[in-house]
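To the team - nicotinamide-adenine-dinucleotide complex, inputs and output below.
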Amino acid sequence: MKILVTGGCGYVGTVLTETLLKEGHQVISFDTQWFGNHLTAHPNLVNINGDIRNIDSIPFKGVEVIIHLANIANDPAVELNPTLSWEVNVLAAQQLADRAVRFGVKQFIYASSGSVYGVKDEPQVTEDLPLVPISVYNKTKMVAERVLLSYQDQMQVHCIRPATVCGVSPRMRLDVSVNMLSFQALKNKKITVYGGDQTRPNIHMKDMIRVYQHFIQNPSIVSGCYNAGFENISILEISERVKKKVNAEVIVSESNDPRSYRQNSDKLLATGFKQQYGVDDAIDEIIELHKSGKLIETDQCFTVKWMKYLNLAQ
Ligand SMILES: NC(=O)c1ccc[n+]([C@@H]2O[C@H](COP(=O)([O-])OP(=O)(O)OC[C@H]3O[C@@H](n4cnc5c(N)ncnc54)[C@H](O)[C@@H]3O)[C@@H](O)[C@H]2O)c1
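Output:
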């Protein structure tokens, strides 16, 4: 199958692209390569360095499935340049969907975010709860979902709402919670937790990839939004789990970050998906990578820092 992965050189996109190639798919990765290009050349890979806002430069011919990951991909990064963020996260998504339909793409899978719910006290945050986005990032995700779902009468549209992803990737992110706390412990023997009692859901990288594979393999799953988050645990709990594996001190500091919510992924599970990996697996993998000397901290591992370096701030 010919699959277009936007953001194919990102943290998730790199692992996804390599997995799809291993499965025998033809993959087009379309990415600005802001965080480098860690994809290995492959006869079935077309690796394009380009901006999705230049819609005419994207080769849609023969594409059956689009997995749309290319976004400004966290709250503080979006705030650096809200105009750029709305253009990339929303306007480009609409153009992609419009072209997709014209080129006969059958399925459009979108990486939304579990953070679209905003702060929620409900113990079970299901897809039917109202969205109260609290950041520009959340708003761009919510609006893009709505725009994309307006095309569901013309192609299958699956909006996945992933929890925070954890685990290793050739394009490593050290600014996502489990990775960040594990790395702090390994590097400084100390973990600083801001607040700590905010609860957030998590998803292991391998399960994240398995979710996208699941939707490709089951295209007739009803169009709509699907939560993909499994371990609703506090930042403090993650730190304690890291502490058990790495001898490190946990220091709790004041926080003004109110983001706290749980995700219920029963709707996804009802489609036949089964979770296989967890936060502990991710911590173990990061420890292993560190032991092997291959966990290299560079500024590219921190989205906001690197976007500032690239002069992408307004
Ligand atoms: N990582 C997480 O915890 C998480 C959680 C929920 C949702 N998501 C979503 O999943 C997707 C992938 O996230 P990630 O962690 O891999 O982020 P990432 O920043 O590593 O990857 C995004 C990729 O998109 C590319 N990109 C950005 N703007 C572009 C543009 N205009 N044209 C072409 N390419 C562009 C970047 O170069 C980057 O390689 C994002 O949409 C993100 O919002 C991620």
